[in-house]
Amino acid sequence: MSESLEVEDLVTGYGKQEIVHGVSLAARPGRITCIFGPNGSGKSTVIKAIAGALPVWSGEIRLADRTLSGRRVHEIVREGVVLMPQGGGVFPRLSVEENLRMGGYSIADRHWVDSRVEALIGEFENLGRRRHVAAGSLSGGEQMMVAIARALVPEPRFVLLDEPSAGLSPAMVHDTIERVRTLRDRGVGVLMVEQNIREALPVADHIYVLAGGRRQFGGSPEQIRDDAQLMSLYMGG
Amino acid sequence: MDLFLQALANGVLIGGILACLTIGFQLTFGVLHVIDFAVGGWVMLGGYAGYWALTLLGLDPFISLPLVAVVFALVGRALGPLIYHVRTSRYARPDLMALALTFGIFIFMRGGALWLWSFNSRNVDTAIAGPAIQLGPVALPVLRVVAFAAAAALSLAVFLFLYRTRFGLAVRAVAQSRENAGLMGVDVPRLSAQVYAVYTGLTAGVGVLLATIYSVNPDVGVRYTLFAFFVAVLAGLGSVGGVLVAGLFLGVVESLVAIYVGISYSHLVIFGALYAVLLISPQGILRRGL
């Protein structure tokens, strides 16, 4: 349990507007934890706050008994928590290799980053041939692969995924969710915000449902399937 | 024909300097999304700095240039956070507010220069002189060749910095997506202020070069702001590679117009050309961003 990523009574928002009103949740290494909920429920806000991209107003975020709340993005990356932005967020006019290098931007040891970049380019065999190609010229699926490889550069313990399937074709959504599964198989903990419940539910190990900036449900996929009311309320059947 | 070649050579030599002048302007637009009206003001102040370094310290402008660049980079580093703050403020129309701010800075620079140094033009003499280099029918003044070479070296340094360093990589990433670069751990406000420092330092350095060729007075800023706008729009706002082509183009057009049509027509022709470019290809001729 002590290796978990834990969020306790998180309150945060944009500017002066409070969006998340005291949410608690936990993600474990080697597990896929999904956050579902309608638009505006604060799910993306929660993971942006975990990554340090939004200030934590109150509450606490811990990873293995080390406090993450109140720290900057680059410090949180060094602690082993990386956020993959919505749609992958690759830099279109940087090459594949440069994109991966940006993934290691927060790490001071450049030789280490170089070796990580080489290892990942070797591992994702389609990337090797395209390492000097502008990422924006790749297909949607290849860009997603760049985004995932980039997220793995700092050797994270947890990857936060902000709606990885947003804006993708149905076939691509399936592909992307499958890739998320490979992250878990590496022992990385995944905390994923998703709209596409049909695709995400089968891979999820643990589920939270948010609505109106509050937690409405926390439990296993089996439990949520049994809860007909919750299914119809928040998940559209 | 000889006259044409001479005009072409003059144009290329000046165009290279104008291209260098616009690189920093483009960086600032790419990273901070600010169109800096004060670009000509930094050129003008750089020219004066070169003049005073020569007059008070006896430094040749080509020696004081790096010094001037460093001093103005420090000024830009101090000013950068304010520009960033205004541009990213959550109040209405931060883009226009930033434009108004830099316009105000520009007016302040010009007014301050007039008040301190009056309208007189100052020449910035350099030890680099001597007979022009004869290349067939074309005569290349040594000073202009050296100034061109200095501008080329500065431009090359900026390109190496952008494409060969970790910091340059981060600059390009921020230019493409501020938010995603922030998620990679880039301190965007700090990097933006640093880019503004590179811009002010580079532009003031170019100001020293231009002052050795044309002399400097408080009003030269307007002319260089217009030139930077022209080169930037022609290249495509935010495009750094395009300014090389666009700068040379501007230099050559201006030189040809000055020789064949008359110098008083040069702005007319330049802005006619700009108008045509905006009509035909509003993204600029080289469309590619940073």
Summarize the structure.
In chain A, 37% of the residues lie in helices and 25% in strands. Chain A is α/β, with parallel strands linked by helices and 237 residues long. A six-stranded mixed β-sheet of chain A has the order 6-7-8-3-9-10, sandwiched between helices.
Please provide a written account of the structure:
The complex is a heterodimer of chains A (237) and B (290). Chain A has 10 helices and 10 strands. Chain A has 237 residues and is α/β, with parallel strands linked by helices. Chain A folds into 2 domains: 5-80 and 157-234, P-loop containing nucleotide triphosphate hydrolases (Rossmann fold, 3-Layer(aba) Sandwich), CATH 3.40.50; 93-155, no CATH class. The radius of gyration of chain A is 17 Å and the shape is globular. The relative contact order of chain A is 0.19. Chain B has a two-stranded antiparallel ribbon with strand order 1-2. Chain B has helices spanning 2-32, 39-57, 61-87, 94-117, 142-164, 166-176, 178-183, 188-214, 220-235, 242-260, 266-280, and strands at residues 133-135, 138-140. Chain B is mostly helical and 290 residues long. In chain B, helix 1 (2-32) crosses helix 6 and helix 1 (2-32) crosses helix 9 (220-235). In chain B, 75% of the residues lie in helices and 2% in strands. The model of chain B has no long low-confidence stretch (mean pLDDT 92). Chain B has one domain (2-280): ABC transporter involved in vitamin B12 uptake, BtuC (Orthogonal Bundle). Chain B contains 11 helices and 2 strands; from the N terminus they run H-H-H-H-E-E-H-H-H-H-H-H-H. The chains are: A alpha/beta (237), B mainly alpha (290). At the A-B interface, helix 2 and helix 3 of A face helix 6 and helix 7 of B. Chain B: It is a multi-pass membrane protein.
Structural class of chain A: alpha/beta
Query: Order of strands across the widest beta sheet of chain B?
Result: 1-2
Shape descriptor of chain B reads globular
Beta content of chain B: under 5%
Domain tally of chain A: 2
CATH class of chain B: Mainly Alpha
Describe the largest sheet of chain B: 2 strands, antiparallel
